[in-house]
């Protein structure tokens, strides 16, 4: 055959492929999530998330010290507590394990560690919903007021970045105003901008003890049939003062990541969620795949779609095994 075009020319040898490849996964753009619970001296592995633990603040500081030695310098904290009530009071009090942990981490590591924390009420409400329930309904505006207090409390504790995952309307603007009013002008807001209703959160809800007792999250999280609506959320979060915008989950939502990349100048983050992690671990356990190759394929795909920041439970394993250098 006489062919003008033979794409295989650029695939022939490792040297040629390393000249022509398009996407680099930078491990410094990855953030490791952690679950922080009440008490002290506690570290228990989470069912469904092998290698991921629920830890008391003292124990978390030790685990993160080990991870810092591995090369991790960006973390995301989620709170887990038994102290739940209708108005999510424990979300913003000084005993909230996340607030305790943030203080201890910033004392120990200062600016060497980027500490971000989830801002949501579902770990603190007795209903397990991301907002407070008043007269049988999730009350958007009351929830936003509490979320704002929680974000400010985290900033006071020294948190570098707050990440609202509740999907209430207007919360980014309210949190930004709350932070500015208290002179927390440097606190970064990483908004869960397009957060969808998803079956991929199952292991997380087990970890955070935050499954809604009654009902689902369809009244506030996005409908997975929708794409244009995500750009509407993007415009709002940008206007309200977000610094980083996120798509969640990641792998079934690569189209949204790409839309975000093409429609904002802000950094785009993606959350490689608990169910995506668990799915890989289950395939590995069943000897159906190579873990390192699968993790790199997934995270490179998320990067290729347009995310420059990825939250992923795989980070510690990547650094331990050097999968990014393979
Ligand atoms: C809380 C929150 C959830 C996740 C992050 N923040 C769970 C949910 O909304 O039900 C999911 C993260 C994961 O699955 O890894 N709003
Ligand atoms: Zn929530």
List keywords for this structure.
single chain; 326 residues; alpha/beta; TIM Barrel; 8-stranded parallel barrel; two-stranded antiparallel ribbon; globular; binds ligand PBG; binds zinc ion
Q: What do these coordinates show?
A:
This protein is an alpha/beta fold and 326 residues long. It has 11 helices and 12 strands. The protein has one domain: Alpha-Beta Barrel (TIM Barrel), CATH 3.20.20.70. Helix content is 39%, strand content 18%. The protein has an 8-stranded parallel barrel, surrounded by 7 helices. The protein has a two-stranded antiparallel ribbon with strand order 6-7. The chain is globular, with a radius of gyration of 20 Å. Zinc ion binds next to loops.
């Amino acid at each position: 055959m006489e062919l003008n075009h033979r794409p295989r020319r650029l695939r022939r040898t490792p040297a040629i492929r390393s000249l022509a490849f398009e996407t680099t996964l930078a491990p410094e753009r990855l953030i490791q999530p952690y679950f922080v619970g009440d008490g002290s001296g506690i570290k228990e592995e989470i069912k469904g998330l092998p290698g991921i633990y629920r830890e008391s603040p003292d124990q978390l500081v030790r685990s993160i010290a080990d991870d810092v030695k591995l090369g991790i310098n960006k973390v995301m904290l989620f709170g887990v507590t038994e102290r739940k009530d209708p108005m999510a009071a424990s979300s913003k009090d000084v005993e909230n394990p996340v607030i305790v942990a943030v203080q201890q981490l910033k004392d120990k590591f200062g600016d060497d560690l980027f500490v971000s924390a989830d801002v949501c009420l579902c770990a603190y409400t007795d209903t397990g919903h991301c907002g407070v329930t008043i007269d049988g309904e999730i009350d958007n505006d009351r929830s936003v007021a509490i979320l704002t207090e929680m974000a400010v409390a985290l900033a006071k504790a020294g948190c570098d970045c707050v990440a609202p995952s509740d999907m209430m309307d207007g919360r980014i603007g309210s949190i930004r105003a709350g932070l500015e009013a208290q002179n927390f002008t440097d606190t970064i807001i990483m908004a869960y901008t397009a957060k969808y209703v998803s079956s991929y959160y199952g292991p997380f809800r087990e970890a955070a003890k935050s499954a809604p007792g009654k009902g689902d999250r369809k009244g506030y999280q996005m409908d997975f049939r929708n794409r244009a609506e995500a750009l509407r959320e993007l415009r709002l979060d940008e206007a309200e003062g977000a610094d980083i915008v996120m798509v969640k989950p990641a792998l079934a939502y690569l189209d949204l990541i790409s839309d975000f990349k093409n429609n904002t100048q802000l950094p785009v983050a993606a959350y490689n969620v608990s169910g995506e992690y668990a799915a890989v671990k289950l395939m590995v356990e069943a000897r159906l795949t190579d873990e390192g190759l699968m993790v790199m394929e997934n995270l490179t795909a998320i990067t290729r779609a347009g995310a420059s920041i990825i939250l992923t439970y795989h980070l510690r394993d990547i650094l331990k095994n050097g999968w990014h250098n393979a």
